Amino acid sequence: MALPTAAELEAARERLLPDVVPGPDDPALRVLFCGINPGLVSAATGHHFARPGNRFWPVLHTAGFTPRLLRPDEQGLLPAWGMGITNMAARPTARADELTDAELVEGGRVLRALVERLRPAWLAVVGLGAYRTAFADRGAVVGAQEPTLGATRIWVLPNPSGLNAHWSRATLTEEFARLRAAAF
């Protein structure tokens, strides 16, 4: 996949990135992964977690969610395996810290409605700080959460962005694998 040009990245600030959700012929949604918001590379390409250096796809595979390493442009395969992807906030940015708390809180409201409609077994929020803000839970830690959204359990995962360097690929894989063991 060729990287977008600077002009394409700037234009991506105005794009929405569609969710990856199951269709009527797909199995039940076991895990809905929720990123913080689309990065500019993701918005430009139309694929979640598309920035080179983002560890989501490699960790998803090594944790056992996918039978092989997927490229971001293969995200459409996830629903057949009981998974989907959405984002907390819709606005694409170069860095997640460009979002306001108000955007995350509103994103949490929209996310709750999506979860109510899709009814996944697990909502996996990929980003502790975003979860704490959107769900007004400053004491949350990585892992399974006590609150639920109806019958949907919540698991907070570390952000797999390469900018989140204090989580190694190995420790990310361990945490994703804990969710997989609970969800499948």
Defining key terms:
33% helix; 184 residues; 5-stranded mixed beta sheet; alpha/beta; globular; Uracil-DNA Glycosylase, subunit E
Give a nutshell description of this structure.
This protein has six helices and five strands, in the order H-E-H-H-E-H-E-H-E-E-H.
Describe the structure.
The model has no long low-confidence stretch (mean pLDDT 95). The protein has a five-stranded mixed sheet with strand order 2-1-3-5-4, with helices on both faces. It is of the alpha/beta class. The longest helix is centred in the middle third of the chain and has 18 residues, at 101-118. A hairpin with a 2-residue loop joins β4 and β5 (152-157). α4 (101-118) crosses α5 (128-134). 39% of the residues are buried. The chain has helices at residues 6-12, 40-45, 56-62, 101-118, 128-134, 169-183, and strands at 31-35, 83-87, 122-126, 143-149, 152-157. It has a single domain, classed as Uracil-DNA Glycosylase, subunit E (3-Layer(aba) Sandwich), CATH 3.40.470.
Q: First CA to last CA: what distance?
A: 31 Å
Strand content: 15-25%
Low-confidence stretches: none
Radius of gyration (CA) equals 15 Å
Q: Can you tell me the number of structural domains?
A: 1
Distinct helical segment count: 6
Would you state the CATH class? Alpha Beta
The biggest sheet amounts to: 5 strands, mixed
Strand elements, count: 5
- What CATH calls the topology is Uracil-DNA Glycosylase, subunit E
Listing every helix as H and every strand as E from the N terminus to the C terminus, the arrangement reads HEHHEHEHEEH
Looking at this structure, what is the CATH superfamily? Answer: Uracil-DNA glycosylase-like domain
Q: Under the CATH scheme, which architecture would be assigned?
A: 3-Layer(aba) Sandwich
Structural class, by secondary structure, is: alpha/beta
In which range does the helix fraction lie? 25-40%
Shape: globular
Lateral strand order in the biggest sheet = 2-1-3-5-4
How much is the average pLDDT? 95
GO molecular function: hydrolase activity, acting on glycosyl bonds
Enzyme class: hydrolase
EC number: 3.2.2.28
Keywords: DNA damage, DNA repair, Glycosidase, Hydrolase
